[in-house]
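RECORD TYPE: inverse folding
INPUT: structure tokens
STRUCTURE:
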């Protein structure tokens, strides 16, 4: 049995029944779910006033007990407002002594990147309470990969990727593209060289995805990586005006601008079917004509 500690640093959980479903599923599976009072909190579009959402993060430094999984209720918007008030030293010290397994994605990427930039803290980019554990149908692939990442000191993902053959090793980092782009030039953007950068997003037209990628390119962030992995870009649907300009066209253009491998096709992001990635861990990316593999190690895991 694991203990889940819920946090809601971002948007109000408009689908309260999904959050309730998520809690019930976790409890039925034998887990304990704490701090449920964050689920109904609301202030305008946010999951509570600033001080409440900030306390969700800062109080993690005082959280005790083994096998604590910190799980974000949902994304949305709001984490960026907290970055300059988070007690980074206390939270980082807590993680260095006895790491919490902190999991979320989307807007939560801002806090995850802050932890990586400030203290080299590994967190998990993966499912959240309402959107994933509270989905109408729980996705077996997502659940399997969540526990695989949290329970295994080393694990390998395999998929049918697209891109040039390569064999690269480096620090795994990234998450939501829009949030990464919003952190450029701030203290919360990790300064990682020779990494493997994994990116995803939702409801962004292919040209907007391209524009954000170009900002990372022109800022020098993409060229200094070992490889880029492009994952799910849900809702990136072209229209008649695009006349054939789509995600694949955009991928090809990006590849023409970079001397490093760009591999696509990983099930990761705003999808019901998603892997869980420990951001800040070490990874080996191998892409051949037969398969793509990503082997990950060096992240905290649940203890027996």
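DESIGNED SEQUENCE:
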């Amino acid at each position: 049995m694991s203990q889940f500690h819920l946090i809601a640093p971002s948007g109000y959980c408009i689908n309260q029944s999904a959050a309730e479903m998520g809690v019930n599923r976790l409890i039925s599976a034998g887990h304990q779910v704490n701090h449920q009072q964050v689920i109904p909190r609301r202030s305008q579009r946010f999951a509570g006033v600033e001080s409440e959402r900030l306390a969700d993060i800062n109080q993690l430094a005082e959280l005790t007990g083994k096998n604590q999984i910190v799980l974000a209720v949902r994304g949305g918007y709001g984490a960026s407002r907290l970055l300059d008030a988070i007690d980074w030293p206390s939270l980082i010290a807590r993680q260095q002594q006895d790491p919490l397994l902190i999991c979320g994605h989307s807007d939560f990427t801002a806090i995850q990147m802050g932890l990586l930039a400030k203290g080299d803290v590994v967190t998990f980019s993966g499912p959240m309470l309402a959107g994933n554990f509270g989905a109408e149908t729980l996705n077996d692939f997502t659940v399997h990969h969540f526990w695989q990442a949290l329970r295994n000191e080393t694990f390998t993902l395999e998929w049918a990727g697209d891109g040039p053959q390569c064999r690269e090793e480096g620090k795994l980092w990234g998450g939501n593209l829009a949030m990464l782009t919003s952190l450029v030039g701030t203290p919360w953007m990790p300064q990682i060289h020779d990494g493997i950068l994994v990116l995803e997003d939702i409801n962004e037209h292919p040209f907007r995805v391209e524009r954000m990628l170009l900002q990372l390119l022109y800022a020098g962030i993409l060229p200094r990586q070992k490889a880029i992995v492009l994952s799910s870009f849900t809702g990136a649907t072209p229209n008649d005006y695009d006349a054939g300009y789509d995600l694949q066209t955009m991928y090809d253009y990006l590849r023409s601008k970079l001397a490093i491998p760009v591999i696509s096709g990983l099930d990761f992001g705003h999808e019901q079917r998603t892997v869980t990635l420990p951001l800040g861990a070490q990874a080996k990316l191998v892409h051949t004509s037969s398969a793509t593999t990503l082997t990950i190690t060096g992240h905290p895991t649940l203890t027996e």
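NOTES: Residues 16-28 form the longest helix (13 residues).
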